[in-house]
Amino acid sequence: MDAPSVPFAGLVWRDYHGVLLPYSAQDGPRDSGNDLAAGFARTPRGALLAGVHVAVRANAQWGPKVFEPTIGNQVTGPDAAALLASTREVYGHRRGRLPQGAALGRGYVVLEGFRWQGYSAESASLDLVSAGPGDSDTTARAVTRVQLQWRDGDWRVIGPPGGTWSGAASSIEALDGYIRFPGGGGG
Questions:
Q1: DSSP 21
Q2: Where are the domains of the chain?
Q3: From the CB of residue 120, how many other CB atoms can be counted at a distance below 10 Å?
Q4: In whole angstroms, what is the distance from residue 76 CA to residue 33 CA?
Q5: InterPro entries from the entry (predicted)?
């Protein structure tokens, strides 16, 4: 698999409940109704955008109206069911007194950059760097491996190992060796 260059020209960054996400008229998502995102081009930039949008939405933070269809329709592989179960569990623990189905609040994360592990027209793998508030007024950075397959006319994320994003993530100190997102993301 190759590590292609991805042009950032034409990307627009839009707020998604506190998280700025990239959109492209050419590469997707073509459908972003109901807080969901689908319809990505079979291009390197389409794979990158799919990885970003699906990974962000497959999260308990946005409530089951977002994470259930995202995981159910856009996550594949042997750990997809475990991801749905663990996300439901996290949502149940964090919901507190909020009504069932409510979002848990806005996001406090910035997408800073990425690095290809490989790309082909059938599959892609990338490391996505995000930053958010850490302990004692510090910034915590994490890199998350996102793997994708082209299936049924769109990119699908392969469920992370063990069915949790923490199984695909690790801490990093700096963005050395990563491609920084321009504009709304990390720059």
A1: E
A2: 12-180
A3: 13
A4: 21
A5: DUF8175 (IPR058488)
